[in-house]
Amino acid sequence: xxxxxxREAGRIKEELLSNNSLQNDDLKKQVITSxxxxxxxxxxxxxxxxxxxxxxxxxxxxxxxxxxxxxxVCINFxxxxxxxxxxxxxxxxKELSRRQQSHIFGFVIxxxxxxxxxxxxGSPLIAGYFSEPRLIPILQVLSLNFLFLxxxxxxxxxxxxxxxxxxxxxxxxxxxxxxxxxxxxxALRGYGVWSLVWASVCIHVTLMIGYNAVVRDxxxxxxGLEEIREFISFGLYSFASRILWYFYSKADVVIAGPxxxxxxxxxxxxxxxxxxxxxxxxxxxxxxxxxxAFSRIQSDLTLVGSHFLKAVRIGxxxxxxxxxxxxxxxxEFLGLLLGDKWKDxxxxxxxxxxxxxxxxxxxxxxxxxxxxxxxxxxxxxxxVAAVFMPLSFFAGVSYYGVTGLCLxxxxxxxxxxxxxxxxxxxxxxxxLTEFLSNMFFPFxxxxxxxxxxxxxxxxxxxxxxxxxxxxILITAGICSYGLFIFWVKKAAFDEAWxxxxxxxxxxxxxxxxxxxxxx
Length: 519
Known about the structure:
- By secondary structure, the protein is an all-alpha fold.
- About 85% of the residues lie in helices and about 0% in strands.
- It contains 19 helices and no strands.
- The protein has helices spanning about 1-60, 60-85, 85-90, 100-130, 135-140, 145-150, 155-160, 165-190, 195-215, 230-275, 275-295, 300-340, 345-360, 365-370, 375-425, 430-460, 465-490, 490-495, 505-519.
- Helix 2 runs antiparallel to helix 10 and helix 12 (about 300-340) runs parallel beside helix 16 (about 430-460).
- The radius of gyration is 24 Å and the shape is globular.
């Protein structure tokens, strides 16, 4: 009898392990598919978007970007207040009824209507703070975005919840292309900062139409808090975290705007925009997939920790060479890309590139904490930054202007990152040493790459035209880093390569070409 019980228990255990394995395999396939669609469509849109953006930067003046930075810091803050974190709550909750969606929709309509009125009628006060009367009509037009945003928060969150990134990617691709083309047309016609303003409105209109068209689940708004009390409870933590995150990440513009004026602020704004291209275009893709993926395995913290370290390992493999490579080639690359009008951007950009790998990896922490339901820890994380970073910005800009703002990011954020990360890792029974060990190899390879680039600079200085020099430096960096990774630790290359859908077919195709050439 005892033997039979042991056999039965063993059989049940094997079935559970098998089911867990299948579940993990299904999740892995869905994550890879989601990354493929979201990444593929987003980068297709970004190729168009950034080709146009570079043209627009060459046409517009730093003052135009300074005005848009002042306007954006206000409207984006109110956007987070209006949502109250309910979008994240929809994604995280396991059960979601149609009645609950209806009441969330009603809440969102009311809150965004209030935000529209606040921004529209409060625009003179904001313009007065920045001593820039031209902000008044800009803010009043941008306030329309609240009305459009209220109409697509629910369908956007539903697509995130279902991990249906195919449809989401197609909608965002259309929005990116339409708004970029409109912005370029207006810039060429001499509309200045308004080319950026109307592009912002265009992207929200397109998202509103697109998300509702693909979800096709329309319902009337309900008004009452009882049905969504648990969503608001989760959302309040998320809301508070986002507010504090936004406060510290945008405190540089709020603090520096009245002190340095719109021209220098425009230089700083373009510096941030250029330095954050890899983070803004790569990490949102990862994070949008990571949040629902971590939510599905939230009960197994060991598995969450394993996936988190893997994301850090693969992210570091990409981020360190991209950011520090940009640092190494910035004088030549920006001189070619933007011309002499933007030469004051070069040194601040190089400073920002130093800390950008840590800033980008830091964005992996919040989806992990949200996924396991520990929004309280995430709130503590951003609270520390919300106190320390504004003090750093004020000290930096007071003494060194734009350079001081960048130095505040380098030293201030590095301190916040390591202090708060140590406490977050404890939830997964991980140490800071384990985290750093997953960054060490990409860091080493990047140091080798930078040595090669600076060596090439010394050898070919003034020997070739600028376009050819830029091509040589970039090629030398890519080849040196790729060879280091492939020869010293091929397992790291294989791990990242395995995430590319259809990698097996690509390998077969390359092998067939090689065999054909040998014949």
